[in-house]
Amino acid sequence: MTYQVTIQPSGHQFSVKPNETLLGAALNAGFSLPYGCRNGACGACKGKVLAGSVDYGTHQDSALTHEDKLKGLALFCCAKATSDLTIEVKEVGAAKDIPIKTLPCRVERMEKLAEDVMAIWLKLPSNERLQFLPGQYLDFLLKDGKRRSFSLANSPEEDSLLELHIRHVPGGQFTDHVFGAMKAKDIMRISGPYGSFFLRESDKPAIFLAGGTGFAPIKSILQHAFHHAVARECVLYWGAKTPPDLYLTNLAEQWQQEQNNFRFIPVLSEPRAEDAWPGRTGYVHQAVLDDHADFSGYEVYACGAPPMVAAAKRDFMARGLPEDAFFSDSFDYQSGG
Ligand SMILES: Cc1cc2nc3c(=O)[nH]c(=O)nc-3n(C[C@H](O)[C@H](O)[C@H](O)COP(=O)(O)OP(=O)(O)OC[C@H]3O[C@@H](n4cnc5c(N)ncnc54)[C@H](O)[C@@H]3O)c2cc1C
Ligand code: FES
Question: What is the CATH number of domain 96-194?
Answer without folding.
Answer: 2.40.30.10
